[in-house]
Amino acid sequence: MKITDVRIRKVAKEGKMKAVVSITIDGEFVVHDIKVIEGEKGMFIAMPSRRASDGEYRDIAHPISSATRDCIQTTILEKYQEILEEPAE
């Protein structure tokens, strides 16, 4: 699996959520609404989710293995860091 595109939309309002991301996998499959969140131990991603009838949130799409999650998270957070370092227009 190769992440072939990462599109980041920074969130303007204050809070823990810093950006919303879409990734393209192998130029064939897109996952929208991945969130970049600032937690107590640093930045992490949250996969797209929906509230179930019991009030709990359940992921709509998610990686099966922790290695795949790490790959996706690392790629997204590196790209997010790049856009933070770009000069303001």
From TrEMBL:
Q: Does the keyword Cell cycle apply?
A: yes
Alphabetic keyword roster: Cell cycle, Cell division, Septation
Q: Which domain of life is it from?
A: Bacteria
Q: Does the keyword Ion transport apply?
A: no
Q: Which InterPro entries match?
A: SpoVG, SpoVG_sf
Protein function: Could be involved in septation.
The family classification in the record reads: Belongs to the SpoVG family.
This chain belongs to which protein, by name? Putative septation protein SpoVG
- Give the encoding gene's name: spoVG
